[in-house]
Amino acid sequence: MRPKNLEKEEAIRTIALQIIAEEGLENLSMQKLAKAANVSPRTIYIKYENKEDLLIKLFIEEVLGAYEKAVLEKFTPDMDFTKGVKKLWQNTFQYLKNNRHSFVLLQYGKSSPLLNKAFQQANIQQGHFFAPIHQFLELNAAKGIIKIFPQDVYRALLFSPVLDLVKEYFDYQERPKQIITEKIVSECCDAVIKGILK
Amino acid sequence: MRPKNLEKEEAIRTIALQIIAEEGLENLSMQKLAKAANVSPRTIYIKYENKEDLLIKLFIEEVLGAYEKAVLEKFTPDMDFTKGVKKLWQNTFQYLKNNRHSFVLLQYGKSSPLLNKAFQQANIQQGHFFAPIHQFLELNAAKGIIKIFPQDVYRALLFSPVLDLVKEYFDYQERPKQIITEKIVSECCDAVIKGILK
DNA sequence: TTGATAAGTAAATAAACATTTACTTACTTT
DNA sequence: AAAGTAAGTAAATGTTTATTTACTTATCAA
């Protein structure tokens, strides 16, 4: 049996993310992707059932999976609260600023009903994303270190700002304004931490 | 001369937002829209040059414009800092939770390169969106009431969490978790304010 | 009332779309 | 080295797409 050419598989994923980042999810077509990845349309259908399947796997596995791994690098739920949050912010900013293509699809995950639904299903079926962060927050809430909120609210309070900062970091390249540096990210993180501590 | 039928114009915009919210921007087509709005495809092209023009006008005028107006309701830049931020959060949550269709396209504005570019251009050409908020923050920074950050960073810190809370409010309807109430929104707002005060 | 005119329609156009068919290739197993 | 097989290709499928053409309608100004 002829074995799979892993380079082709990777090209499909990489080029798909690139097209989405540059032209938008609205403008990704199977034929355009095949041509750009130097592959026959049929080849895409070996690995993916259809276009929706491709998008969902790209989003869940390629983007969310890798993003989660990068964010949780050197993080443990039993860390000191301030140190833990700072580490998570650092990891997030570092990873996303070096992976703009992933960042764009990640943002689409908050808009597109297809990806949104896929995320919720994956979250239930294959275990929750960012589970160690949940644990971390529960632990610190129980210890009385931070204010009590529903789990999902912590994410809004603690982590949505850093995603916005990444977006501003990329926007910088397109219009003149102050660049987002690691120092600014760190100072923002301090402000967020101050707000959530009891 | 036969006058424009304003009902048709509004139907086009309303149904477009509805399709985007339910099926995604990826799945909005001019023919689908025409059919759903009970209008000939040609009628859409009277008001809009092409599909991109429709999307941009929908985003900038219908969504961003109305959103800005609602958020700034009863807000003035010389308000007390805490009162001002609380008012902005209240307005945001109230308006968006009652306008889910607008919220979805608003979120697409952070993903789609087309809408993103359109936003940046509109921001420059027709004056900055949310200018009173800029003023408000500058004033409070000058008075030494809040920490000093670049203007765009304030938005990330102060306002991205409330958009995330709106998203969670809508997600509630699809999977069981704690509902986002006005009380929780208000408590989150307090935390954010605490973090940014000097 | 009528003539001008932009709003509106239904149907058509050509291009692009997702997916499949029919075939070839390259590798493993025997 | 030959057979078997999944990976891979090029070209075709029928559908849907954005947009236009050719025509009709409704209103206003004269």
UniProtKB/TrEMBL annotation, chains A, B:
One Pfam family it belongs to: TetR_HI_0893_C
DNA-binding residues: 29-48
Mitochondrion is among the record's keywords: no
UniProt keyword DNA-binding, yes or no: yes
Single GO MF descriptor: DNA binding
Organism (species): Pedobacter cryoconitis
Record-annotated HTH tetR-type domain positions: 6-66
Protein's name according to its UniProt entry: AcrR family transcriptional regulator
Record's keyword terms, sorted: DNA-binding
Family matches, as Gene3D superfamilies: Tetracycline Repressor, domain 2 (1.10.357.10)
Recorded superkingdom: Bacteria
InterPro entries xref list: Homeodomain-like_sf (IPR009057), HTH-type_Tx_Regulator (IPR050624), HTH_TetR (IPR001647), TetR-like_HI_0893_C (IPR054422)
